[in-house]
Amino acid sequence: MQKVNIFFKGHKILLILIAWISSFILLTVFLSFDAIPFDIDLYIPILDTVVPKPLDVTLPLFSYAGIFGIAALSLNLEVGVTGISNFGKIGFFMIGCYATGLAFLFRYPIFIAIPIGMLVTGFFGYLLAIPTLKLREDYLAIVTIAVGETLRTVLRAETWIAWPQNRQTSGGVLGLTIENIFRSSITTDLVIGDIVILASHVADLMFLIVITVIFLLVYLFLEVLYNSPFGRVLKSIRDNELAAESLGKNIVSYRIKAFVLSSVLAGLAGGVWALYIVAFSPGGFPPYYTFFLWIVIIIGGLGNNRGVIFGSLFIWGIEYLARVLTSDIPTFVGQFTKYLNPISDLYRQIFSLIPFVGEFIASLDPISFFQSLIIINPPEYYPQFVFGILLILFLIYRPKGVFPERPIKTVADIALLEDSKEKNLSSEKDDNQ
């Protein structure tokens, strides 16, 4: 039965890969058009910024989604499967990034540097798990936030990390800079007919393929894990710790194992991020990245890895495109709200007719308030505003996410279901006779 299950998961992986590649190709082709295929008078900033080089958008976008998707999968193992609230996830991501970067600077090849980052992150997760996983959920959340910020502060202000002969340090505020192995090894443009793909794009495409393979392997590993006895114990701990403990399960031991495994996967994501981003510093790991990961698994669906894929593309797509279009967003919003001015004027005219309080109500014009809100706040905060609204809406109207978790059917469950069907059929035959 396990072989059949893995074979079935392989079909799911193939479907996910097809959807991933199709999304990448369709978005790239769409951004290659010289104009939007419909007539509209609104200013579309995306035409002026990303259409000339569509791969400059799609390659980083899918790379971001893949790398942080691995981190979201690791968080889903803790939160969605085991019920461990970790609000310092970006700290473990940062440890993996720095450990891999330092190993790479000491001339270790990538197939050794990344496992070093994973082991260091897992070891740190083990040291943190022993004293903290016995705490209540609210205290555990506070501790993980504090630990993540402490790590970031130490790496930013370190003066005590000095390697032998002063070879390399963690870089302090300036961070680390490592070699881009893909771009340094690929220096020739790719020519396909009349299409010329720059060497930098070819290198980034090769890296995206590597990221996709790693993401799918992690996805497959976790899918098999969740359907194993170990994964079912983790879900039983999440649902009812007392019941799991009454069945003889060591709750703390299982939670520690899940926490360490999640830390190792976060270290893997951080290591891949180090090789992708090349230059990084403690300021590049803000605390709100952890909450982006939380939003990914909440919107996608807690306990369901398919939801992580959707949530990663959705959330990091908004975040990355907003970063690319930062200079154009205020212009676009201003042009859009210009068409709402007649509604604003009508609002003021109607409520100004009300005696006594009419002028006050008319002054509370929502359109003008929205315009002033856009002008006051920097454009880089717009995605966070959108994410906050989405999080509230999903928690109210769809708390289980776009892809809710499906209950696991074990061999015993399937046998019981088939047995009940046979009994129902036999009872129907007896009734007919």
Structural class: mainly alpha
**Helicity range of the residues?**
over 70%
Q: Please, how many helices?
A: 19
Shape: globular
Question: In words, what does this structure look like?
Answer:
A two-stranded antiparallel ribbon has the order 1-4. Strands 2-3 form a two-stranded antiparallel ribbon. The chain has two domains: 53-325, ABC transporter involved in vitamin B12 uptake, BtuC (Orthogonal Bundle); 326-402, no CATH class. α3 (55-82) runs antiparallel to α13, α12 runs parallel beside α18 (382-397) and α14 runs antiparallel to α17. Helix content is 72%, strand content 2%. The radius of gyration is 26 Å and the shape is globular. With 433 residues, the chain is mostly helical. It has helices at residues 2-31, 45-49, 55-82, 89-105, 110-132, 137-157, 181-185, 199-226, 229-239, 241-246, 251-277, 288-300, 305-324, 329-338, 341-352, 358-363, 366-376, 382-397, 411-432, and strands spanning 176-177, 190-192, 195-197, 279-280. The two termini are 37 Å apart. The relative contact order is 0.13.
